[in-house]
Here is the input.
Amino acid sequence: MSTIAPTPSPASSRAPSPVQTPPSRPTSLVEMAVWVLVSIGGAGALAYIAFARGETISAAWLVTAALCTYAVGFRFYSKFIAAKIFALDATRMTPAERLSDGRDFVPTNKWVLFGHHFAAIAGPGPLVGPTLAAQFGYLPGAIWIIVGVVLAGAVQDFIILCASVRRNGKSLGQMASEELGTTAGWVARFAIMGIMVILMAVLGVVVVNAMAESPWSVVTVGLTIPIAFIMGGYMRWIRPHAVLEATAIGLVLLGVALFAGQWVSESPTLAPTFTLSRLTLAWLVMAYGVLASVLPVWLLLAPRDYLSAFVKIGVVFALAAGILITLPPLQMPALTQFVDGTGPVFPGKLFPFAFITIACGAISGFHSLVSSGTTPKLLISEPDARFIGYGAMLMESLVGIMALIAACVLTPGVYFAINAPAGILGTTAADAAAAIQQWGFVVTPAEIEALATNVGEGSMLSRTGGAPSLAVGMAHIFSSALGGGSMALWYHFAIMFEALFILTVVDAGTRVGRFMLQDMGKHIWEPFGRVSWYPAVILSSVIFVGMWGWFLIGGVTDPLGGINSLWPLFGIANQLLACVALCVATTIIVKMGKARYMWVTILPLTWLGTVTMTAAWQKVFAAAPLGFFATATRISDNLAAGQLPPGATSIEAAQRIMFNNRLDAAVALFFMICVAIIIVVSAREWFAVASGRKPAVSSEVPYEPKATPAFGD
Amino acid sequence: MQTTERAKRLADVAPDVGVVDLQGLDSLRSRIDKVLGVVKTIIGVPDYERYLKQHCERYPDALPLTKEEFFVDRWKAKYTRPGQRCC
Here is the structure.
């Protein structure tokens, strides 16, 4: 190996293995020429989208810039990390082989593992974030997604995966405890819990906003629950474990549900019954969370998961195909005036809020849990970690780019009509059109009404949360790829897809959260931790749902629509977890004796630390409407003056909004303190190793040769 | 007792042993099975056959889990700790 550590650690100064990785063959001239062309293509496309002004540009530029940058990043940067930091070694035994038990540790073909890993990391995040960030124009989102993934997101996923593979598949929490001490371990655990609560709440708001006042969506999405029961029953009693048959039945029934929704929405007697308010839907989503956490897995969670994974991968490919076929022009300008922080979708300036709003797609801390969860236990050959860890994240980033395109094919007028809250737009098409025209975008009340009729909804005004506008964009792309028409059907298909996707995160997340809560709670009261004792199960489920439900109810009753305050909070939380992961990764690199390459993780860590801290600081301390404390004070001033703040219907409601703002501030402060602790603890560790006070000892499992050579699978 | 139990479970896995081999059909079927197997793994269906094979290779003397037990065990692992799914 060409890379000998300056201070050889016991783990890396292993005896030379009998078969060394063959030295990479010299790059041929043709290959070099191709890479030069790809690099020029990527840089050219990026430059074009950055400097093109005045007219609409084609989505092809975005796709080209993304694909070329990903290719160069994968070919050169990930290879550099693989060779210089970890010296990934095809002859080294992986945990999948060492601990192979057919259960947790299963050697899995790399293509299959890629699909599995991608299905695990890709959630609603990369769809919603870019849609919301489109209020700044397409440029900030595009650059952050493309550059961020190559230098930050994929790096995090890849390095954590390698670290976990070298440690028998340890989780991020375990690695944090081991590398940084128990304090950091506990901070990481609490942070994960906090993030889960905020994540469930914000996804709840997204799905509630997508279904509110829409009988078609309520019926179609609601029917996915009995469909799961049917699939579960089929797999239990009729054809045990015939998963694919059941999934095929489920897919057919989803189609039926789509048309059933249409039929109900057109029925004058049934439609009002299924026209539900946001508050009612919020309670229903919470009830669903409790149900999913309490019911046996085979009945609800498992069948829904199969169905959702299937639909997810199918729709992602369909969307990619649709975009490639139509190559739609982007109607949104490169930059809007809202970079100054006056945006209606969420408040806050371009820096730092574009980088908080788009987490998944550029970098998502949550991925570090997957990279140190199932995937490291399935990897056959070490060098494949590059394709799976780095590669799958590039693919997710592409999903983010597609979501951005889908949001930007809408004209800005329509985009803001759907995404700006009623508190800003007003409640009639005429008011909304007037407000949007004041921002300098062209839209008429008739257009806003025609859009709603076109997609089969009563109104599309202020359908915040990102899901409805993404669904309109997707419907637009699907419809024009297939020659036009059926907008209403495609719109509700997209809503169903998003809701299926989101509810699968909410239900599984609630169950996981319930177990985490039981695990923590048993230290206080032992019976609470009994996982198959019904009183404890129900109690812990209700407590956990109550935790995210509080924020959900607060979100749906907020006059500014909830997404406004909760999505930035979620972004901060997610980026915070990325900071924790990058701190752990840096510590691992330093302890391997590779301190001279620590810039690979320090670079994204510095950026994310700055972004997260600035955003959280502003959310807590800035003036209203951005700052939580200032907003609360403004409401209390209003109340003191004997008037109700705009949007509040009663004094109690106003007091609740005030309390929620203070609570949000407390949560943001909590996240800031967590990041600060982790960064300080890690930095102390790095300096201790760098100054020689602490020996650079890697905690890797020592080298063992593979029993079976890793060719093919 | 244990050995016969194990033989029975193995017979569940490979019921085709001893069936007349229709060459062409079988290779097509095995190819389809392979594709379906990949789809199943990607959508996250636990693979009992593989577990049984690996279990029998590694621990020839121990009794493997039944298919029911195995699925319950996998679901428990999947829905009790974070790291299986992301936002």
Summary: The radius of gyration of chain B is 16 Å.
